[in-house]
Design goal:
By secondary structure, this protein is an alpha+beta fold. It has one domain. It is 33% helix and 23% strand. It is built from five helices and seven strands. Strand 6 and strand 7 form a beta hairpin. The longest helix is centred in the first third of the chain and has 20 residues.
């Protein structure tokens, strides 16, 4: 009886290991993206506008931000792709356009497939949407009917600014 119980226990342990191993690992993001995903997940029961307002309070951003309601169609950061399938959309980002950061929070329509919507965002995101700057990281996550997409630099400096392209050339030239 003890051998049967030990065998049954061993089988259960193997099955539980296999079951745990089938879960898809959550992607990890950089020092700017990861805290924003956590804030998004903690607030996903709110409206898209309320979530965007909470995201702009994150101390990792280091810039004065603003939000703007958006409608379906052409959105900044996605080239010529029309983004459709949401009933509420809010863009959030810095008040100054030279910082390579842009984010959106969407509340999807009931009939919109979340994974297809996220795939559309990922396939059409242009990290160099702004002529003078380029983001380093793309974040696309969902929680229920809410989707967040962020294009961001990996980090901001102590003053909340991003290094400008060509700084190293200017520094070398001045020496």
């Amino acid at each position: 009886m003890k051998k049967l119980f030990a065998l049954l226990l061993a089988v259960l342990m193997v099955v539980s290991l296999v079951a745990c191993g089938t879960e898809e690992p959550r992607p990890t993001y950089g020092p700017v993206g990861e805290p924003l995903v956590v804030t998004f997940e903690e607030n996903c029961d709110k409206t898209a506008q309320e979530i965007a307002d909470e995201l702009l309070k994150d101390p990792n951003l280091g810039f004065m931000g603003a939000t703007m309601l958006v409608e379906e169609g052409l959105l900044n950061g996605f080239g010529n792709a029309e983004i459709k399938g949401f009933k509420e959309g809010v863009m959030f980002g810095p008040a100054i356009g030279t910082i390579p950061f842009i984010g959106y929070v969407f509340t999807l329509d009931e009939d919109t497939d979340v994974e297809k919507f996220k795939q559309t965002l990922e396939e059409n995101a242009d990290l160099r949407w702004n002529i003078c700057t380029e983001a380093d990281e793309l974040v696309v996550e969902s929680e229920g009917d809410k989707v967040i997409v962020i294009m961001t630099p990996n980090q901001f400096d102590a003053e909340g600014e991003v290094p400008v392209y060509g700084d190293e050339f200017v520094d070398e030239f001045e020496e």
